[in-house]
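Complex record, two chains
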Amino acid sequence: MAEKRVATKEKRIIIKATRFDPDKDEKPRLQSYDIPFADDSMVVLDALNHIKSYVDGSLSYRWSCRMGICGSCGMMVNGTPKLTCNAFLRDYWPRPIVVEPLTNFPIIRDLVIDMDDFMHKLKSVQPWIIRKQELPLGAGEHRQLPAQIAEFQQFSQCINCMLCYAACPVYGLDDTFLGPAAIALARRYNLDSRDQGLKQRLPVIAQPEGMWECSFVGECSVVCPKGVDPAKAIQQSKLDTTLRFTLPYGNRD
Amino acid sequence: MPAGWWLRKRHYFLYVVREFTALPMAVWLLWLLYEIKSASAGPAGYQPPKSLGFVVFSVVCLAFSVYHSYTFLKLAGVIMHLKVLDRPVPSRVIVLTMFGLWAVASLVIGGALIWFAK
């Protein structure tokens, strides 16, 4: 057992990370780092933290919780959008790991992308509960049955990590597309029995750059680390919206 | 996006194939419309092409059509959000029902065409 521990300590892995300084570089380049692969629980984020702490303190990237909750550490790992806190080195070793910023977004520096476009789109669908008239606090809570919660629960797991945008070729080809996460969250609130904001969100999701732009590639659902299935949310929204405008009395609140 | 983005992943490739299958099918259907228009003038106007090339094209179109229908019906289970007696119908049941209806429709239409051809 002791021998095995020593052998594990000697393991090393190559991390090739994107470096880009907008003041000096014309375009991003890859830089290799040979780092110790200390134990099997190490994830790509640990490797980046090791580089920043002991090899090159100038490496820039976003991270926060290290447990797949905050959605900050999304990057391209060997060409696939992943949360780096959830990408284990053991799944790649002994091959090198290429870590790049999420595709389809402008790069600010190294592995940091500009998320302004996503934040603007997210806000445009008003992902919060909208009430026509707020009840006073004294009226008590809005109660829901388990079946009513089950309607939207899957879509409420979104952590805004933007992996689905990096995986979506439709967004990559045309960044005016509202995108998977924003539409999934719009659906999450539209399905919530406490919400009354459907008619405020419809003009946003039903515009040409909204759900109709999606051609159902489905890769957004494949890469989602929380199992949200945005492709399902988008297609269901298309069907619901069509029925609203074609069925008698379909366009009710 | 680089021009070869759709070759980067198997999933992207299958998606592009799925979308592309609509194109030869559209060409084949345009030909069918032309033949229907010709046949409206009577049996003399109906002269379907019998070349080997056209037969091969038709077989390829049939394969594309089957693949397109398969992907469409498989995805229908994801899209449809049905409830029976206030309980959501599992997508597996929806998909199987779709494939069942597809088989029945194919048999009925194929049977009718053979019947009228006789």
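Note: DSSP finds ten helices and seven strands in chain A.
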